[in-house]
C-alpha cells in the first residue's frame, strides 16, 4: 500500500533535526520510555498468546495513521495510538475505556487463531551477481517494497536467509521466502546522481524481484 | 484475534486521536492504566521492563564489539560472517538470533544505515535509536542525498570514497563498524570502546580520532 510512510527519496524536507543529540539519551521524556516498554511487552504477550498478531500487521497499523498525523505526531505518540488501536482490534480493551482512561472491569478475552504456516521449499530464484528488476506495482496490503526502487534494475549483492513475506505476514499468513541484498547504483535511481559512484543496498524478498 | 482489517484500524486511529487528550503524557497514562486494570500488564511491569532494558541494552554493547574487532582480526572476520554469534561472544546477555549484519568501513568505503519505511534499528542490542534517525527528514533524504546528510553531521567525504547506503527494509538489522582511528595502537579495549559513538555505528560519523589522549 502506498501511504506517506514510504519516505525514501521524497523531496522537500529540511535539515536533519537534533544531529548533536547526546549518546546517553535513550528517551528524552519519561512518557516515551513507558510507551516503548508497553509496546514491547504488548507485542511479546500477543505473540506468546498466539492471537495471530504479527510485527508486519503492527507495522501496517502504524502506516494506517491518517497521513497528516503520520508526519506530524511524535514517534512515540504514534506508537501509543497504534498500540491502542491494536489492543482494541484484539479485544483487550475498547475505545471508550481508553478515552475514559479507566477499565470497565478486570479481565479480557481474545480469540486465538494461529497464523497459517507455509514453508517455501524452493531454492532461491536468484544468485549472487545476477541482475534483477524490482517489481513495479504493489497491492493495497502492507508491503516492504519501497517505492523508489520499483521498476529499477540492480544486482544481487548477497543471498541472505529466509524471512516471512511481509505482504502475507501482515494478513496472518507466514510464507518464508529467500531474501537478498540488492545493490542499485545511485545513478540508476536519481537524475541528479548521474555521475555518482555511490550505491544503495536494500533488503528484498524473492517475489519482489524479476530477472532482467 | 488480529482482524488484519486495514480500514478498521484507520478508523480507530481517527476516533482515538479526535477524542483522547492532546497531551501525549496523558495518552500514555490512559493506555497504561487501562492495561494494568485489565490485567493485561502487571502493575510494576513497565518499571521492571525499563530497568532491565537500561541495564542490558545500549550503545556500549556495540562499542565493546567494535573495540574487540579492532584488536582481534580473527574476531573481526567472525563479526563479518556471523554478527549474531560474534556479538554474543562479547555481550553474553545479547539475544542469540537477532539477525544482525555488521558492515565495515574501509578507506575506500563508507557505510550509512537508514530505514526509509519505518525506523528499524537494532533496539535489542544498541538501545533506542537517536531521535534524528526516526525523523522524516533523515528517512527521506539518506537514500537520495547521503553526502548532503553526512555533511550536516560534520562528515565530509572525499570523492574517491564510495558511499554505501543500506536501507533496512527487512527484519535484518545493520550496524556499521567504523575504522579504528590512527594513533590508538597502544590503547586498551576499554579506552577504544569509549571512542565509539552511537552515530558512528549508524554511519553519520566516520572519523573517531580522539581529541585528547587515552582514558
Explained architecture:
The complex is a heterodimer of chains A (212) and B (215). Helices cover 30% and strands 20% of the residues of chain A. Chain A has helices at 30-48, 55-63, 67-72, 75-90, 95-100, 166-169, 186-189; strands spanning 116-119, 131-134, 153-164, 173-185, 199-205, 209-211. In chain A, strands 1, 2, 3, 4, 5 and 6 form a six-stranded mixed beta sheet that branches. The radius of gyration of chain A is 20 Å and the shape is globular. Chain A starts with 29 loop residues before the first helix and ends with a strand. Chain B is mainly alpha-helical and 215 residues long. Chain B has two domains: 8-43; 57-202, Nitrile hydratase alpha /Thiocyanate hydrolase gamma (Nitrile Hydratase, Chain A, Alpha-Beta Complex). In chain B, the strands form two sheets. In chain B, strands 1-4 form a two-stranded parallel ribbon. A two-stranded parallel ribbon of chain B has the order 2-3. In chain B, helix 4 (59-71) crosses helix 5. The longest helix of chain B is centred in the N-terminal third of the chain and has 15 residues, at 24-38. The chains are: A alpha+beta (212), B mainly alpha (215). Chains A and B meet through helix 1, helix 2, helix 4, helix 5 and strand 3 of A and helix 1, helix 2, helix 3, helix 8 and helix 9 of B. Chain A: It catalyses: an aliphatic primary amide = an aliphatic nitrile + H2O. Chain A: Residues 1-105 form the Nitrile hydratase beta subunit-like N-terminal domain. Chain A: Its EC number is 4.2.1.84. Chain A: This is nitrile hydratase.
